[in-house]
Amino acid sequence: MSQSFENVRLVLAEPNPNIRIGLRAALTAAGFRAITETASYIRVHDLLAHDSVDLLISAAELEGNDVGFLISENRNQRLGPNPFPLAITLLGNRAPARVRQVIVSGTDDQLLARIRRLYHRRKPFVVTHDYTGPDRRNQARAFGTHQAPMIEVPNPLRLRAENGIDGTRMELLIREQAALLNRIKIERHAVQINWLADHVHATIRDGISSNAVNLMPFTNKLLSVAEDLIRRMKNSPAEAHVAPVAELRELAHRLDGAPDSIPYSELERLNGLAKAIGRTLLSVVSPPAQVA
Known about the structure:
InterPro entries: CheY-like_superfamily. This is Response regulatory domain-containing protein. The chain contains 10 helices and 9 strands. The protein is α/β, with parallel strands linked by helices.
């Protein structure tokens, strides 16, 4: 099958115009044509929000802001409809000598080699409570050898290169795998809510602590996970079960503000809700067997 990168929507986000010029020349020589250049953090945000990126090549920071935050928001389905664009982060060393070295080196062979590797094989996504993204281990981890769920994800670089501008197949794959990713995250959240509620309940019940500062890491997390869970449950098979999670969120909010003054009956209610939510969601959205 013929390969052409001309329809790959590549975003080159780099604050140094000289580096941008050099990288664009190398990327154009490699066959890329649909290149968007920017030095703006907001521009990268908007391009991800509107699903206008197949491959993002970006500095680690733009305008003093962490681009990794945008990538994380995108991977966690909080920014844009497509959580699967490929992303390459450029060197973080901005020392003048290093910048000059990049400029005078001409074609960035390491970058192009990385793009070729991504074209041939994209790493599966690992889905945990706190991380969604490519498997970060140096050696590939075989499916069935790790407890964290992993999913194969679309490779927009390869799909665009082999199928041209027609994105119908890619859009279908993205929708299917985004829905699978969402179901797995719902399952992970259900497990995490159960653990957090049980930990807070036992800590207060057993007299270990009811101090807001000591409990804050757990009550903050419980609240944020409940909020994200509600967002994910909408337009999913679990949507009919949002009400108990909303009640748990309100209890978690009160607990986060003043854990030493919440009635014990509400603490018991929180723990009971967490266990019921876990049972319900695991039965409703437990995804098919693409796990590792």
